[in-house]
Amino acid sequence: QVQLVESGGGMVQPGGSLRLSCAASKRSLSFTIRDTAWYRQAPGKQRELVALIDFDGSEKYAEFVKGRFTISRDNTKTAIILQMNSLEPEDTAVYYCYVKAKRSGRLEDFIYWGQGTQVTVSS
Questions:
Q1: What is the pLDDT of residues 24-58, one digit of tens each?
Q2: Given 7, 37, 49, 62, which residue has the most CB atoms within 10 angstroms?
């Protein structure tokens, strides 16, 4: 099992910046973290991918954040950061940390979500 704890949300004016952090802790050494990502969900909308780093370190971004947001993680894949610059009111949402992991001896993927952190962009 992998536990995710997010921090760093809050309120910011348009054009401002926020840095979201996600701390991942593995309850068992049998789990290996593969993909790490940030998703978001705005009121009345479906949850959507914001940015992802896959198992080999390749980064992928949603079109609406390219050039503004940067995802990063440490070598152990237990600290996942989302640096958000040039924030817009449309970025207002609850942001969720996501991890896909493998467990030794098992074929299926294990998906874990954080509890979410609110980001509000408003003047």
A1: 998 888 889 999 999 999 999 999 999 999 999 99
A2: 37
